[in-house]
Write a structure and sequence with these properties.
globular; Conserved hypothetical protein from pyrococcus furiosus pfu- 392566-001, ParB domain; alpha+beta; four-stranded mixed β-sheet; single chain
C-alpha cells in the first residue's frame, strides 16, 4: 500500500448530492444548501485522519467495510480521492465535527497511515 495518498483538487457535483441528503437529516434544506455553497467555495486544507476521527467522535471503520475496501483499492491503484467535506464542531457546546462527506475515505486513509494528510474543505455551522 502506498504511503502517499492522492487527492483531487476539488469535489465534484455528485459529491454534494450525498452531502445534501445527509445534511437535510440534521438541518433544513435551505441551511443545507447554504452550507454546501460555502463548502464549495472553501479553501482546501489538510488534517490527519486520526485527528478528524477524534474530532468527529467516530470510530475508524475496518478494511472489511465495503466502501472503505473500495477506497483502499483506489488508493492502491493510485487513483485520487475526493476531498473530505467537514463542518466544524463546537467545543464549548460539546458538538463534534461533522463529516458531511468522506467518512469512508477518512477511514481508508487512516488504515494506510493514520497521520497521512487528508485534503478537506471545512466550514463553520
Amino acid at each position: 500500500m502506498p504511503k502517499k495518498i492522492k487527492w483531487k483538487s476539488s469535489p465534484k457535483g455528485k459529491d454534494y448530492e450525498g452531502v445534501k441528503n445527509f445534511l437535510t437529516l440534521l438541518c433544513s434544506k435551505s441551511d443545507a444548501e447554504k452550507l454546501i455553497e460555502r463548502l464549495d467555495k472553501a479553501d482546501p486544507i489538510e488534517h490527519a485522519g486520526k485527528d478528524i476521527l477524534r474530532a468527529a467522535a467516530l470510530p475508524a471503520l475496518s478494511s472489511e467495510d465495503p466502501h472503505v475496501s473500495k477506497d483502499l483499492k483506489d488508493i492502491q491503484k493510485g487513483k485520487p480521492l475526493a476531498p473530505v467535506l467537514l463542518i466544524r464542531g463546537n467545543l464549548k457546546k460539546a458538538h463534534p465535527l461533522v463529516i458531511a462527506d468522506g467518512y469512508h475515505r477518512v477511514c481508508a486513509s487512516y488504515i494506510v497511515d493514520e497521520s497521512s494528510p487528508i485534503s478537506c474543505r471545512l466550514v463553520e455551522l
